[in-house]
Specification:
By secondary structure, the protein is of the alpha/beta class. 52% of the residues lie in helices and 13% in strands. The chain has a six-stranded parallel sheet. It is elongated, with a radius of gyration of 21 Å.
Length: 246
């Protein structure tokens, strides 16, 4: 008998998953949880053969929870359920933690019940499961980050103005704030950000922040001041992403 725990914040989804999986032959749902923070301290989750986790359960999970779960990772078999947007948001930075799991699977939520149940069985048996388009995305992102060097840019250097924009993006400035500081229109700033991303083969503002820090465009000070600026960049993206997205 395969013991399964279901983790999903949306109750109708959680109930539906538990009912569907639990109705399958040779599979038993032994516990349900609303979020990852419910897992630490409950041995029933550690005894499960497979954790089925909705990607939305990963949102807002605190560092303390991840630290508590960290010791479990080498023994966990997890099947993640997500949307195509979740797949696109998966980055190489996420992979080390996933790869520490005993077995991991990634499945889109819009598939048939038979695929879900079969994926649970495969993960329980120690088989890696992943949707084809997710594998393609992961490989694409890995190839982009693997070429994160000066040589890979094929001689496409940033202009002085583009460097100024990059520095301000790294400090968490929105397009509007950059435009005011450099006396440009927001449209011009947006175009600069887009050109910078194209030159560096990057996709998101967070990638620009990472590039600026790793390449020394924005120095990381020993007193942590730049780390605070980096946090501001993350916050700035969250609060201003819709109005300033490049």
């Amino acid at each position: 008998m395969i013991k399964v725990c279901v983790v999903a914040p949306f109750e109708p989804l959680r109930t539906g998953l538990a009912g569907t999986i639990g109705a399958s032959e040779g599979v038993e749902v032994v516990a349900e949880a609303e979020s990852l923070s419910d897992l630490p301290g409950h041995t029933v989750f550690r005894e499960a053969d497979v954790l089925v986790i909705d990607a939305d359960a990963m949102l807002g999970t605190g560092r303390t929870t991840y630290a508590q779960l960290n010791e479990w990772l080498p023994e966990l078999k997890v099947l993640f359920l997500g949307s195509r947007d979740d797949a696109r948001n998966l980055t190489p930075d996420d992979l080390p933690a996933y790869m520490r799991l005993n077995t991991v699977g990634f499945l889109l939520k819009d598939g048939p019940v038979s695929r879900l149940v079969e994926a649970v069985r495969l993960v329980a048996a120690g088989t890696f499961v992943c949707e084809t388009e997710m594998i393609r995305h992961i490989l694409t992102r890995l190839s982009q980050w693997a070429t994160y060097t000066e040589d890979s840019r094929n001689g496409q250097t940033l202009s002085e103005r583009e460097t100024e924009v990059l520095v301000m993006v790294a400090h968490g400035a929105s397009n509007k704030e950059i435009a005011q500081e450099l006396f440009l229109s927001e449209g011009t700033v947006k175009a600069h950000v887009s050109h910078i991303m194209n030159k560096l083969s990057l996709e998101r503002r967070t990638d620009l922040v990472r590039y600026a820090l790793t390449k020394g465009v924005v120095p990381i000070s020993e007193d942590g001041a730049e780390n605070n600026g980096n946090n501001g960049a993350a916050s700035g993206q969250t609060n201003g992403q819709q109005r300033d997205a490049a």
